[in-house]
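ARCHIVE CARD
SHELF: 3
SLOT: left
DATA:
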Amino acid sequence: MKKIEKILVPLAFSPYSEGIVQYAVMLANSLNVQQLIFVSVINQRDVDAVETITSFGYEVDGVHYVQEIKKTRVAELDNMLKEIGFPEEKMKLIITVGKPADKLLKYAVQENVDMIVMGVKAKSDIVHAFTGSVAEKLFRRSPITIVSYREESIADKLRKRITDKL
């Protein structure tokens, strides 16, 4: 069995992202991982929506939208990593635009990662019903082992649901 040297961490910058980052760093430290690769995908659908708004004469455009999102996400990740205790030279951040599941799989293979650590919940259940889950797509299509992180509040709800059925 191959040693785990690289871990990819998809981030949607949801309320659950900080827990995912902390869990990934804990695993990386425990496994003496050589590199943590954080990947955030700005959904192409959102950029297209901004471009549509621009076509109606509003003063916003896709390029500036992407620049602002990137700037915000870099700052948020820096804030999450402030007191995490993982060497900066062993971390990499990739922010890209596209279809999230496709881009994440592409980078996982391209970066030759050994594990993906991700959460299963980034949006509300209503949004999930309409858009599908990036996590579900990755679990179905990934050739790489995926570790599923559960935020404690989500884990508690799942435990309660299970025990209520017993």
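SLOT: right
DATA:
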Amino acid sequence: MDFGFILTSIAPVFVPSNILFVLMGAVGGVLIGAIPGLTSTMGIALLIPFTYGLSIIPSIGMLLGIFCGAMYGGSIAAILIKTPGTPAAAATVIDGYPMGQKGEAGRALSIALFASFSGGIIGALLMTFLSPIISRMALKFGPAEFFTLAVFGLSVIISISGKSLVKGLMSAAFGLLIATIGMDKTSGYLRFTRLQGFYEGIPFIPGLIGLFAISEVFANIENILSQGKVVAKISGVLPSLADIKRIATTIIKGSFIGAFIGAIPGAGGDIAAFVSYSEAKRSSKHPELFGTGVPEGVAAAECANNACSGGAMIPMLSMGVPGDSNTAVLMGAFILQGFQPGPMMYVEHLDIIYAVFASMIVANFAFLVVGMAGVKLFAKVISLERKLLIPAIMVLSLVGSYAINQNMFDVFFAIAMGAVGYLLQKYEFPLSPILLALILGPMSETNLRRFMQIDDGQFWKIFTKPICVIFLLLAVGSMISSVINQQKINKRTAKAAGEK
């Protein structure tokens, strides 16, 4: 390894003007991520025309700043108003919002910031040193492997089902059912409805906003005048040493999970976050506390979705295959600059590759600075009177739903999903399994049908593929361990009730 060449390649990244561009991108990314309905993909796409006149290093640096900043920014809305700012922050809601409601919004935000930064750095380092190896593994994924990956992801549903496994499975079944609405991706046949708004399937972002944000608005309208405000305790912009020790193992495991899943084209931060959360709960000595507001739950989700950023860059740079929607847009930025991502990049433009690696690391430090500057300000949001905060959340949710496609149909759908979410919460049905089913349902169905067409309907051939067998065994292991964990939780809950 030629360290002199590496230093020469990364030196331009640390020019003050280039660092400023990355910092500007991080500020924009955090703001975009914190606003429900605005995604990092949208932010990157909007900024590309403005970076066209720049050279490759500052332009890609700014776009990476948005990418990494938005991944962290999604946790802000998830913790403060129970609305994932981005789909990748959906798992953060499970423990982040309860922490906020207990007056620990500042603590939750600082843990999310530290975990996001740590996961992002680990993901970037793995991208730097392991990209050729991981990209070769990712290249082996076909329809069968993607199907079993989706099955493994769906096995996580048991871990996020809350108190009742039956209700969790019913919520997941509902999510899988509505995920089939719309045009069949294989045959083009319209299923269940001919409404134009459903042609491409359920509008995902408006559905997410409706389930988590608008349902919370409906729930609070009942007692909006009687509720006071929650006082957020803010002692520092970074977690305490005790919290860091508590979440260190979770961050390391979650970061590797996130980087690996991110390197699989088509997977994303949302899947990585749920899988990491499930693993954190499975390996915890007190799994019954997950969902009530524990630091490990926030850390597991946030480190995984940020490590996924580095992982998603691996197939894009080494194979020319975007790992997710963000890297698909980033790939377009590379092409606009005259560089074609793929194997030849490592031969003809290795200096640019190293500069991208360095920019990714700088982008993570940039959103750390932005987050540290804003933690106290963000946490004050939750201290507003409920009668002021709830209408503001409703307006923000409706604007976010409209912003995706500039379509009123999406707004009405978000309100409808809000009503559904309100009723489900009222009868103690968990919402997270619905979201996970909406993410993984189309992925599992489409890839299963492709696999069956390729292999002439011989499903048994899936057991001849090593990667498929590994994912299926992981799915079985995940379900068994989750059921055992749930039994432990039920016993501890019953014992605690008996002592009272």
